[in-house]
Each structure stands twice: as structure tokens, then as C-alpha cells.
Amino acid sequence: MTESVPILMYHAVGENPSAATRRLSVAPRALDEQLAFLVRHGFTGMSFSDLAGAFETGDTLPERPVVLTFDDGYADFAECAWPILRSYGFPATVFVTSGWIADAGSHAAGAPLDRMLTWAQVRELAAAGIEIGAHSHSHPELDQLADAPLREELRLGRTLLEDCIGAPVRTLAYPFGYSTPRVRHAARAAGYRCAAAVRNIRASSSDDIFMLPRLTIRRSTDSSTFASIMTGGDKQIFRRDRLLTASWAAVRRSRRAGKRVLGHV
After folding, report:
1. Is 142 a member of any domain?
2. Model-wide pTM > 0.90
3. Short-list 83, 81, 123, 121, CA closest to 102
4. Domain count, the chain
5. What is the pLDDT of residues 92-125, one digit of tens each?
6. Mean pLDDT, the chain, integer
7. What is the CATH number of the domain that holds 174?
């Protein structure tokens, strides 16, 4: 039987997140309670790339594996999330939007939604064992880009992060979770080895390694909901999310088809 693994998707972690990030944020106390639950119930943390690698090679997974991922690269990861993760001995993967970095300078791009990590903080987190992944450069809807800008978003995001941490960056999370076969092919061609989507189902070795699904943790995920997610109730909890994702995917395909007809992509 193929083992399914929860890959949890977080964003901001703070008491007073910006209005733009609040819905997808969690309070530090909530993250602490969630990690305590994972430890109490015997879950073993893995990085995103370690899980993807085990799926690809068929290696044996640890007892009750779980992956914690944090998107965008908010400053509160270093200030709030990392100390909590460290206290419980849990690894994590942070998918950083390179153009949103606080001191990105001439490389600044896109519109950050809150305070962001600095290059020095990214470097310090990597040195401390946090896995740094890419989240594109300017956080666009990758599936709506023409081929050339798509390639540049994937290339520049990875290159800047590698220059910062002095190590390869081979994991990617698609902004907004959107991808298509064309986007996934471009990600592979850009040198990534695996990528994260959303989809709100558990991941398994039968999944496309460039579309590993994650479960969304939000401000509204209270302790009982989190416990249900981790003990098998995720199918029902995320049913509405999956329906919305399927509906939105059809809209996005139509939108891109219209752009092709108009010659915009």
C-alpha cells in the first residue's frame, strides 16, 4: 500500500499579520500547539526535498512522516516560526520569493504582502539547517506567462537564492499553487528536481514529483481541526477547497487559451 504523507503549507506566522496575509497566517501560539501535537503523536519531520527524494527512489520513510513548508519568505519566519521549530527539533522548507526580499535592491520585483526576510536572514536560516526553496522571482501566475518570461522567473529566482546561500536550490513551490504541464516542464528544464503545488490532498509516491500536493493551514485551523487533519479527516475538511481548485483550473485554462488567440503568449 502506498503511504500518504501530509505536506503542510504555511505562510505568515505572527500575532498581527498584514490584512493581505491574515487569512493564510497562523499565530505563533497556534504553531507551537501544532508542533506539540506532532511530537506527542510520534510524527517525524522531513524536508520537502528529502520526502521527494524518498518518493523518487523508493527509500523507506520514517515513522509517521510530515513536511512543514512556509511560502513567500516573510520576516516573521525568522522571528517567530524558526524559534518554535528549533525548540521542537523540527525541520522545515521555506519557499522564498527572491524579488520580495527586504533588501532585494535592483532585483526588487512584485508586490510583497508584508515584511519580508533579508538576504542575511535567508543565509542564516540556510546555515541553521532550514531548507531554502524557490517561489519564483516576482510571484506571478506562472501558467499565464509566455515561455520566455516563465523561464526567466524560474531561472532568476533560483540563481539569486543560490548566490545568497552558496548551495544548490532544487525545490520550487508554484505561486498560488498554479501549474500546467508546460510550467512543470519548464521547472524541470530550469534545474529544479521537485516542486510543490497545493491541491489539499496528501502526497504519495504515485504523485508527479513536480506536483506534490500540500494541505493548507490557515488562521481558522484551530487545534481540533488540525488534529483531525493529521489523523485522517483531511479529505472531508478540504473537500470545498478541492472543488474550488477544480473549478478555478477550468477558468485558468480558458483564460490562457484566450491569450494565445490574441497573441499575448
Report:
1. yes
2. yes
3. 121
4. 1
5. 999 999 999 999 999 999 999 999 999 999 999 9
6. 93
7. 3.20.20.370
- The whole-number pLDDT of residue 1 equals 42
**pLDDT at res. 234:** 85
Domain of residue 19 covers 7-262
Between the CA atoms of 222, 226, 232 and 238, what dihedral angle is there, to the nearest 10 degrees?
Answer: 60
Taking CA atoms, 153 is separated from 109, 197, 229, 259, in Å, by: 11, 17, 33, 19
Q: Tell me, yes or no, whether 239 lies in a domain.
A: yes
Own/partner pairs, 188-192, CB within 8 angstroms, 24+ separation:
189/151, 190/151, 190/154, 190/155, 190/158, 191/158, 192/134, 192/154, 192/158
* Residue among 62, 152, 67, 165 nearest 109 (CA): 152
Q: Which three cell numbers stand for residue 124?
A: 542564516
SS3 content of the chain, % helix, strand, coil (to 5): 45, 15, 35
With respect to residue 1, please indicate whether it lies within any of the assigned structural domains: no
Question: Could you report the per-residue pLDDT of 43-64, keeping only the tens digit for each?
Answer: 999 999 999 999 999 999 999 9
Question: In the numeric block, which cell numbers belong to residue 25?
Answer: 497566517
Task: Judge whether 53 lies within some domain.
Answer: yes
Would you say residue 174 has pLDDT above 70? yes
Determine the 3-state secondary structure of 44 from DSSP.
Answer: strand
**Rg (the chain; Cα; Å):** 18
